[in-house]
Structure prediction request, 203 residues.
Amino acid sequence: MNSSRASERPRKAPAGPDVAQLDNANAKRGAIRQVSSSGVLYANALAIEREAEARYRELAMYMMDCGNDEVADLFARLAEFECEHTYHLAKKCIGMNVPTLAPGEYAWLDSGSPVPEARAFVYRMITPYMALEIALEAELRAKGFFERIAAESNDPSVQALAREFAEDEIAHVAWVREAIAHLPKPYQPSEERAGDPTIEQLR
Prediction:
């Protein structure tokens, strides 16, 4: 997927941190692993894209419920970008031996299935700016993962595919950074501008 698509309205498809910090985060989540074939690499790419789509849709629904239609539309469009990318990835790996990864392998917020009350609490506390920062961290982790595979693999076909996926993630990072740039900066209390830290700042 090239960066020019970021400016297009996506079609409906069928069904920052430094490198060391990103590597540490990946290792803790079990994301850095041996990738022995293109099929395994596709499995990781599909898991990353599906998690991103699911979280963007979840955030879009939450923002809509809060009456923040503009930000809800932003997250819905990002979800559609991810959905379309997942569709094209799935088409490319038809006929390959693509393993199924464990659920939660690339979870943005958690590695399990939290009770609804816990997830609702997280979303009540989150702001649009914070949500996009979580998205940016996830996209950067994905980019770092593919770059590491490209650097460490001994299989030229895996290296080439990993570089392609890393380029896709660069485009995803650009989408999120552009979205962050269009949001007001979060309120920062200071000696001149005191604020109550217990009151949510919807930025």
About this structure: The CA atoms of residues 16 and 96 lie 35 Å apart. Residues 1-32, 111-117 have pLDDT under 50 and may be disordered. The helical segments are 19-28, 38-65, 69-92, 116-125, 128-152, 156-181. The two ends are 30 Å apart (CA to CA).
